[in-house]
């Protein structure tokens, strides 16, 4: 058999993958595996629209009557809030409620907040404060893991200082340039973040 003979077996060299790309792939696969092991069923939860007369599960205020970020948290234990996710008039109420519930042993499947990259928000002044409109339709929500929030900006929400979420990093930069504040991944918010508001 010669080199030009088509019936001649040609040795196949395994394709080489650059080490950096290989390690990145292994790391990504590991992260997915860890998320699966942690029992995060959040991909099965979807945001719902909030009824116009729904009261905040944390503070009792009517959600649609107030400006700013609104939120909802889906729990593993069959939504004891009456067959629906817990719903909130602000990001601070959403996180406070979720942290308290987790301290009591409940498991949050997914947290959704207003995604100001996905809505046409109105900006208005009231009593010298800058506020963003609230949005309660299901399409207005973004999954916490896909959002960046801005803390300590000039924009306030229903409960005063609030976290303003965006899914687009360009929108985050524009917001911070205009209203100040500090950006962070929404999934990094903890009790200390809320206390620092």
TrEMBL record:
<dbReference type="InterPro" id="IPR008719">
    <property type="entry name" value="N2O_reductase_NosL"/>
</dbReference>
<protein>
    <submittedName>
        <fullName>NosL family protein</fullName>
    </submittedName>
</protein>
<dbReference type="Pfam" id="PF05573">
    <property type="entry name" value="NosL"/>
</dbReference>
<dbReference type="InterPro" id="IPR006311">
    <property type="entry name" value="TAT_signal"/>
</dbReference>
């Amino acid at each position: 058999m010669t080199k030009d003979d088509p019936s001649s077996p040609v040795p196949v060299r395994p394709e080489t993958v650059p080490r950096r790309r290989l390690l990145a792939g292994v790391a990504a696969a590991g992260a997915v595996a860890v998320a699966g092991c942690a029992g995060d069923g959040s991909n099965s939860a979807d945001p719902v629209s909030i009824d116009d007369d729904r009261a905040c599960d944390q503070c009792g205020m009517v959600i649609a009557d107030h400006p700013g970020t609104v939120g909802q948290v889906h729990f593993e234990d069959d939504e004891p809030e009456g067959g629906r996710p817990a719903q909130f008039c602000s990001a601070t109420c959403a996180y406070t409620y979720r942290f308290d519930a987790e301290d009591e042993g409940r498991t949050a499947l997914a947290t959704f907040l207003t995604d100001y990259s996905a809505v046409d928000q109105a900006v208005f002044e009231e009593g010298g404060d800058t506020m963003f409109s609230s949005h309660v339709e299901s399409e207005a929500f973004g999954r916490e893991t896909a959002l960046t929030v801005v803390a300590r900006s000039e924009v306030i929400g229903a409960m005063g200082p609030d976290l303003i979420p965006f899914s687009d990093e360009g929108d985050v930069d524009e917001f911070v340039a205009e209203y100040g504040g500090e950006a962070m991944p929404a999934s990094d918010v903890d009790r200390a973040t809320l206390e620092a508001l």
